[in-house]
Amino acid sequence: MVDTRITYSVPWNLFLITAGSAIIALALKGIAFEHAFIPGGIFGVSSLVYFASGLGRISLWYLLFNIPLFIIAWKFISKRFLLYSLYAMLFFTGIYAVLDVNFQIHNQLYAAVTCGVLSGLGAGIVLRSLGSNGGLDVMGVLFYQKFNIGLGKFYFFFNAVLYAFSFVFFDNDLVIASVIMLFCTSFAMEYALSMFSQRKVVLVISDKPKEISAMVNQQFNMGSTLLNGTGGYSGAPKQIVMTVINNIQLKRLEEIVFTIDPTALFIAENTFSVIGSNLARRKIY
Fold first, then answer.
1. Where are the extended beta strands (E) located within the chain?
2. C-alpha radius of gyration, the chain, whole number
3. How far apart are CA 75 and CA 131, in angstroms?
4. Strand order across the beta sheet in which 237-245 lies
5. Which residues in 162-206 belong to E strands, given as ranges?
6. Which terminal CB of the chain, N or C, has fewer other CB atoms within 10 Å?
7. Fold category of 199-271 in CATH
8. 3-class state of residue 116 by DSSP
9. Per-domain residue ranges for the chain?
10. Pairwise CA distance, residues 87 & 21, whole Å
11. Taking the model in full, what pTM does it have?
12. What is the pLDDT of residues 65-106, one digit of tens each?
């Protein structure tokens, strides 16, 4: 069974938020700021206001835009989630404000990809905690809980409006590079979230289902399920073995299956979210 004392502990969640926020701040200050990129979300709005007006500082605008969002969400979202998200926002804002770093990446495309990958990795680490990166994440959760508006749709429409305004104030190449950075951020974030969570759903159609099921339990200390099926050609009843394992165990399971039954049919599918049993507990914010 997964030990939830660690994943729900305050030190572990603060570690994830601190590490992830530091990576995001490094990427945005050391790359995005130097190229005047417009990231997505509330930080993107802050960057747009700063670069278009030249007033204040990006970190100050970001802090100001976040304050009303947290006030609005305080009544509707878990207080623990909001407090972790508030810490993430304040820590990121402080680190970004004091950092003086330049990665010296002069090519605009290289800079956009590198910044997107680093900031996405940091965002994914933060989202593995019980909080979020603050800003748009907080409002996204609120809209999802209250109005059933999917997070992906909410982010898409918000950023679409943001970049539409960006085209008015900035060079087209700069805005397109910012969009490339945003896409890289999304892919890197998904990878960071699935890095330790991705599982394989395995279906085995065999004439020796009970032997295979017993070996799964014995070799991997994992449960399996026997599903009832019927042969499409023969009409004979069959039992299908279904189990969930990680990527490392896949090849070993394949060898076990075909050692028991060389004529078996082995089907493996990727799955991102597996909750329950001895695999993972549902995250409660």
1. 199-205, 225-230, 237-245, 265-271
2. 24
3. 16
4. 225-230, 237-245, 199-205, 265-271
5. 199-205
6. N
7. Alpha-Beta Plaits (3.30.70)
8. helix
9. 4-194, 199-271
10. 10
11. 0.75
12. 999 888 887 877 778 888 999 999 999 999 999 999 999 999
